[in-house]
C-alpha cells in the first residue's frame, strides 16, 4: 500500500506527526491534551521543534492550550472550522503496516502471520473480513491487545490465534472456517514457515 506523503502538504515532518497524533487519537481520548515533553518522547522529535510547531498550530487556531501544575498542555480546538476535514484526512491516510511488521518481527515463535490489506480501513469503517489478522502459534495476548489498541486507537480489530497442532487438526477435518480465513481476498502473508499455500490450492 503506497503512502500519501502528508509532509508535502503540511510542509514539516514534525508538524505532520503532531497533527496525526492529535487527530487520530481525538476519538479515543477525552481531549485532556498532551504535554510537549511527552509528545517529544512519543514522536521522537526534538523538544524545540515540538514547541515551535505547537505554538504555530495554536496560532492557527487548530490547537488550544491550558496551564496545569506549571505545565502547558495542548489539545484540539473543538471549534476549529476544519475539524472534521482534518480528522478525515489523517484517518484515510494513516498506514499501520510498518508498525505491524515491526511488532511481529519481535515474535520469534509465530509460525504464520496473515494480515488483510483492508486492515487500515478499520480507522474509517468496518470491513467484511472474517478476521483482520490470523496467527499460528502462541504469544502474549495481553501485549498484543495493547499493541492493537495503541496502533488502531482503540478501534476493534478482529483476529484469531491458534496453535500449529490445532491448525493441522482443523485441516484434517476440512474446517471450512479455517479455509475461508486463509482464502480471504486481500490476505498478505508476513510470515509463513509451514507453507500454508500448499494447503489452500
Features:
201 residues; alpha+beta; Arc Repressor Mutant, subunit A; four-stranded mixed beta sheet; three-stranded antiparallel beta sheet
Write a brief structural summary:
The chain has 201 residues and is an alpha+beta fold. It contains nine helices and seven strands.
Describe the protein's architecture and organization.
- This protein is an alpha+beta fold and 201 residues long.
- The protein has two domains: 7-93, Winged helix-like DNA-binding domain superfamily/Winged helix DNA-binding domain (Arc Repressor Mutant, subunit A, Orthogonal Bundle), CATH 1.10.10; 97-198.
- 42% of the residues lie in helices and 16% in strands.
- The chain is built from nine helices and seven strands; from the N terminus they run ααβααββααββαβααβ.
- It has helices spanning 7-10, 13-24, 36-43, 47-59, 83-93, 97-105, 141-151, 164-172, 176-182, and strands at residues 34-35, 63-68, 71-76, 112-116, 133-136, 159-162, 187-192.
- The strands form two sheets. A four-stranded mixed beta sheet has the order 6-5-4-7. Strands 1-3-2 form a three-stranded antiparallel beta sheet.
- Helix 2 crosses helix 5 (83-93) and helix 3 packs across helix 4 (47-59).
- It is elongated, with a radius of gyration of 20 Å.
- The chain starts with 6 loop residues before the first helix and ends in a 9-residue tail after the last strand.
- The model has no long low-confidence stretch (mean pLDDT 86).
